[in-house]
């Protein structure tokens, strides 16, 4: 799969990113480097700023070792765009026959959503831990669509992708706050990382998996191209307004539609309640537990609302970012404006 060389790559003399992604580790030293967004070293590859560790291990392993199944469901997102909530909703919906949402021993009552639904590129860092999972498997990824292997995105794969999109200003603020809170797990103190610094980098797309709007655009374009059964595009803000209808849509897309009996029995509302951020935040495992990467589970639960950016950004900052995004998306047909 070939990709156009970015302007940054060309200007800095990096090897054109036209080689197969499985071999990307070999060219990492030649790729533009960004170190100002803690705690990661970022490399500019195929139009995105990707954590170096992901390019060294995650991407090559996903392309060379991961064996997808036709029943697989992948939850894709730019970081801090509703990922944790989507993981909980999708897991509870897809696995409700083996894990009834009303049961006291439901996995989400004892494990964090990130333990129930693991990240593809991280799981492949430590060996393929996914082969033992029973079908249907539900996995997550922050990889841009163009960095996913053809074995997942190809016409014959049968895999389904659910993408959740969030308004850029809220995504930025959430990512900045998460960075400050979670960085100690990687031995980095990011308390001095200001919103102004994060804003300037975000506007340039120089954040992990950025530019955010290009990340969103790739998945949206694929959802338009193949709307029937391959890519479901969800908007976080719309899900907040009507969670039950979106859970039903999610179930239909994943091939596990709710029966009339289930709907009448209130199963959908039980799942929404179980997976509400307030409920998840209050569970012992999310108040005091940690992920295997050392990040405290409570770092993943904040306000979960739309519009919180206004408490951290000035109107001038908001206008500037809106203009950058508007210009970047001009002519694509996509807008972040909610249709709800």
TrEMBL record:
Q: EC top class, in one word? A: transferase
Keyword Transferase listed:
yes
Q: Does the keyword Transcription apply?
A: no
Q: Which GO terms describe its molecular function?
A: sulfotransferase activity
Q: Where does the record place the Sulfotransferase domain?
A: 70-333
| Matching PANTHER family | SULFOTRANSFERASE SULT (PTHR11783)
Q: Which family does it belong to?
A: Belongs to the sulfotransferase 1 family.
Q: What is this protein called?
A: Sulfotransferase
State the organism named in the record: Miscanthus lutarioriparius
Organism placement in taxonomy: Eukaryota, Viridiplantae, Streptophyta, Embryophyta, Tracheophyta
